[in-house]
Design brief:
- The chain is an alpha+beta fold and 563 residues long.
- The protein is 50% helix and 20% strand.
- It has 4 domains: 6-166, Beta-Lactamase (2-Layer Sandwich); 171-233; 240-383, GAF domain (Beta-Lactamase, 2-Layer Sandwich); 386-562, Alpha-Beta Plaits (2-Layer Sandwich).
- It has 17 helices and 18 strands.
- The radius of gyration is 65 Å and the shape is rod-shaped.
Amino acid sequence: MPLQGNCDYAVLVWLASETSVKAAAVSTAIAVCFSAAAGLLVLRMLRRAEAGQSEISFRMAAQAAPAILWTARPDGSVDFISDSLYSYAGLTREDAEDWGWTRLLHPDDLAACRKCWERSLRTGEVYEIEYRLRRADGVHRWFLVKGNPVRDEQGEIIKWIGTCTDIEDQKHNQQILEQQIRERTEELASANTRLQEEMLERDYARRQLDEQNEKMLRDLTERSQRATLLAKMGELMQSCMTKDEVFAAALGFAPKIFPASRDAVVLLNGRRDLAEVAGSWHECQLPETVFEPQRCWALRTGHPHLVVAGDTTAPCAHAAGVEHTYLCIPILAQGEAIGILHFQATDEAPTLADSELSFKTTFAGQVGLSVANIRLREALRTQSIKDPLTGLYNRRYLEEMLEREIRRAVRAEQPLGLLMLDLDHFKKFNDTYGHEAGDAVLRESGVFLAKSIRAEDIVCRFGGEEFVIILPTANLSAASGRAERIRSRVREMTVLHQGQSLGMITVSVGVAALPEHGTSPKELLEAADAALYRAKRDGRDRVVAAEVQQAEATVNAARAAAG
């Protein structure tokens, strides 16, 4: 069984040479310095020494030892060092004995070496330390130094014996290992730091993504609600009958669709020479509530006009003094600007986002489309009830209005007059001057008749050169008087065609009245037509009243039926 450590070996060879050491001292040394196996080997060698079977020389054994062996007196002074130290350090035995060997110590290790040795001398504890010794070439190498006390039977230290083992390679390997451990530890720490940073970054990115998703969801929900309101507004506007209804609906929905801006609706007047604020919300501030259209770029160009706060490139004159960003969007109906939507940013929302532009233009488009639809309906109705040549109401409208006015007159027990006029010798104008001249006569006659009636009267072109005038509240006598005044004034009318007068124009007029000549459109028209026929037969240019054909009982029955 091998010995454990160089120090065990040193004590072994010393004890083997000192056969005079008592058994008690050997037992003490064994108990203090050796393992059980080493102690057994020492005892065997001692028995051999006592029997004279073997001569072991300590010094020879020390020179053959793989480590530097040394012994010291109880006071700590070194009395023996194996020759391997001298060959290592280049010293003589005289230079190294006692305390001379300390000259080999690295200056940084001397104090620790002395302190540790003094403590072992004072306490009797095993001496163990690592320090550097200078080699003959001046290079320092690390050594592990161990020293064990040897005691006599009374327990007194009689000797110190120890080893000095070169551990430079182990130390270097240990340093490499420690460096690798440090590097690995640093790598692990760095990796852990990076992992923590990555986790923090991922947590931050996840929070950012969650916030973005929440904001996106809020924005989508808000946009969906606003789109729903916009759709409801458009549906409502499709049922509006007048422009006033359209603008009232727009002013009602606008604050709900655009809650984050200050806005106003500005409309052009009928002459299109002034724009006026029709309504505003969220405390929109416009310096001018009435202004000329050319003071707004949107009305000039027909396109949306954005002015960023502080930009003096092309501000709208009507918004002079507005400090926030603002946007003017024209309201177009059939390609014609009828007003603008004016939007102002606020301190809470200092910009007008591009995503909002679609809502705003759609809003303006809904308003413009609704107005265009109303205009179209009015135009279609006008076309259906107006004569395109004279601008007077046509026969279809006459039939509707005559029936309504008769019901009204019967309910109110009021009279109603009806005039049927025919231009005398109208064919002569066409034959002599051409159809264009005839059209000119009809147009001028229509203009004249429209100017000759009261606001409540209704004049229509009945067909060809015939006209009919409904006179509410006019009895037969008043209707005849009105007919006579019209007839006489027509004679004074001058119609020019291509710079040439077409001569004097005359009319024949048949007069009928409710209740004398009936209580239905057919009866009154037939009565007036018959009177007109007699006027033309009697020489034209005259007024003839229809003959009374209606009995009073018939009139009373009609009134009862009308309610």
